[in-house]
């Protein structure tokens, strides 16, 4: 139990790091630089908030390194419940990591364009702004694709939590529902690009992920009431 509690708290810490850096890089930074399709304003916002933009890249990289290690810690904790589901959980989680790091390269390319004299000499201001917008779209599209895997890995993860006997079943249910929250959000935006996705759609994922993060970090694991079959 002591070893499992240590593993649970490591996983909780990694999860918390993933959540905090994700909020900063995926919510706070875009709120400072998003220009809603205005190329000139986008370049102005990035230049005037360059430190925030760079911190967003750094926090994104840190968060995804943590997210790469997180499923391995969870595998150590939950593989005894069902090894095949644990392997599936790890595979679906890590699948989005290379996609996101390619997206980070797009952000670094943006910095090269707006911060390098070489490119200012090669391109007119309008051409430079167009390239910045293309790279911003490329970044956003890759992050959007990652959303599929943000959802898919929660299904085996939630199942393992539910069946474990040493973690709350309600959190397992919320995590499994959270899988469909992400998938509904993703496919709704693909099929109905101008529709507004109701905020309640993402509530199971939000409560499930934050709940399991805090439970692992603060509570750890409890003694199973019965052996896992």
TrEMBL record:
The keyword Disulfide bond does not apply. Pfam families: DUF4386. The chain crosses the membrane at residues 12-31, 51-74, 86-105, 143-162, 169-188, 200-221. Keywords: Membrane, Transmembrane, Transmembrane helix. This is DUF4386 domain-containing protein. It comes from Dyella humi.
